[in-house]
Amino acid sequence: MKWHLYLLIFLGFLSTSLLLYLPALDGDWVFDDVRLVATNDWLWRPFDGPADEFQDWVQVLADPDVATDEVRVPFRPLRFISYRIDVLIAGALGIDGPDQPGATLPFHIHNVILHSIAAMLLFFLVRTIFPGGQWALAIALAGVFLVHPVQTEAVAWISGRRDVLFGVFYLAALLVGLGQPQRPGWVRGCVVALLGALAMA
């Protein structure tokens, strides 16, 4: 079945990306990582259950003054939600603060996974634009995207998460917009608009 092949291709992208960015996986907080994440007490607050977590985010979205400047000034909700997920994963691994060994690992791995997803979306996009079995072309173009040095800052820096997320949702919007012509236009348009909004969130 095709999904087996797609899974194999994605695992290939993920393995390549992990190997390529292996030196950065245990990297320290650098540049904007420090201001946006490492010294952001709001992100590293204790987890008090789903209800309180949801309420905290409602407060921030409704009134950003309740959070720190690091959340408010460059506020990209989706990026900070993804950072918060990384903090919770770190907490589950016994890492309670940004100064502990391995604190950056969940953040770096998250970036690599998102980058691999973007490459897979590009693979599907090329297959949509050039139908008729253009597997080699799709893999080649997605592979170039995956390993190109221009991606280094976005993937290796934790603060580059916004660019990786933008790529994922932008490519997803293009894929939905160009594919599945059998779906009603207004439905596809709404999905594209939502994905475009998430790309900028």
Please write out the topology:
Elements: H1 2-20, H2 22-25, H3 32-38, H4 50-62, H5 69-72, H6 77-92, H7 105-129, H8 135-147, H9 152-156, H10 161-178, H11 185-200
Provide a count of the helices.
11
Based on Cα principal axes, name the global outline: globular
Radius of gyration: 18 Å
**Can you give the mean pLDDT?**
86
Q: In percent, how helical is the residue content?
A: 55-70%
Spell the H/E element sequence.
Answer: HHHHHHHHHHH
Distance between the termini: 36 Å
Beta-strand percentage? under 5%
Number of extended strands: 0
Major sheet: none
Main structural class: mainly alpha
Low-confidence stretches: none
Give an overview of the whole structure:
With 201 residues, the chain is mainly α. The protein has a domain of 87 residues. The chain contains eleven helices and no strands. The chain is globular, with a radius of gyration of 18 Å.
In short:
Helices cover 70% and strands 0% of the residues.
Which features would summarize this protein structure in a list?
201 residues; single chain; mainly alpha; 0% strand
